[in-house]
Amino acid sequence: MIRPCMRLWLPALAALAGCAQQPSDGNGKDDAGAGPPAIDGGDVPDASTTATAAATPEEKGPCAGKAEGALACEGESVVRCAGTGRAQEAVKTCLDIERCEAGACAPACPKGEVYVPATGPAGFTMGKNLSAYGFGNRKSGYHGKGRADLPHKVVLTKPFCMDQTEVTAGAMKKCVEEKGCKAPQRTDRWITYPDKPDYPVNLVDYPMSKYYCEQYDKRLPTEAQWEWAATGGDGRSWPWGEEEPTCEHTDFTQAILISPGGDSGCHGGGPSKVGAHPKGDKIWPDGPIHDLAGNVWEWVIDSYVPYSGKDEVDPVHERANIGTRVVRGGGWNRSGRGILAAFRGGAIWTYKVPGLGFRCVRNAKERDAALTPR
């Protein structure tokens, strides 16, 4: 309770109370030696303390309001917070296909591409020891030897973005017009270029496919990247799982073909529009990837050589002296066995057929930490 004649801390209150001003010794105390008065028994801060508190800015920065040890984002870097609310140390810088979000690196692939994470140190198993290695011309009489797909562990250390669909005839037309891509020749009744823009481009050889990807700062996938994207490493038979393939899953040939190729397929011959069989998608957290089985085969970087059976990290098996490249995924004129996720096909690098196309990947790059906003 305010006593009537005590010198109040605020002059305005003193005037209202009608109290007489008491003499001061000049040091902020009255003659009785009392310090700053109390209101209802509570201490009132002196003027200097009040001014200091008012001048203190609100806590700002990535760690504002976060506990010690919490993770936050500073630009595209993940940082660990100190108890003062300031960043204490950089934990890591996100790759160029990622963004820092809520203290972690999150997918940031361009539209039309799907983020595929790294395998982690446990890796995954490639090879089912089912395919004999045999690839040679008839004249030489060489039919190969041994197994083409010895099981082995593969670790992929970086994530990548994969095209959600096979490259379309429409996309190839744009590249022909703007970036110097070579147009497929109209030599087959099932050609999609240029009249079917929403269908996978076909009758493209390895150099044409490789050139296209490079014009968009991308690459053909490695064989390991392709299989990891198609299966997630869980050993599934097809990208969607173990359910036997039907024409709801993909465009393929349900009957046993008389010859290696034929005018077959779910829709009477030739590929389907990309993404027309969503039941057969491989679903990743960042989105689905379409047509990894059937529709058209897909070129990959690797030369067609047998697996060594030894564990590998980020493998790329390019051999300049080997003109045969691996193709994956099967096409509309292949059976259920030919579209298995682990099935390895091989084709001469100049091969151009209506059941063969491609898709690209965007490989992750390290950001320059010095240029990352801090």
From TrEMBL:
Keywords: Signal. Residues 1-17 form the signal peptide. Residues 136-362 form the Sulfatase-modifying factor enzyme-like domain. One of its GO terms (molecular function) is formylglycine-generating oxidase activity. Residues 33-56 have a biased composition (Low complexity). Residues 24-63 are annotated as: Disordered. It holds the Pfam family FGE-sulfatase. Gene3D superfamilies: paralog of FGE (formylglycine-generating enzyme). InterPro entries: CTDL_fold, Sulfatase_Mod_Factor_Kinase, SUMF_dom, SUMF_sf. It comes from the Bacteria. This is Sulfatase-modifying factor enzyme-like domain-containing protein. The lineage of its organism: Bacteria, Pseudomonadati, Myxococcota, Polyangia, Polyangiales.
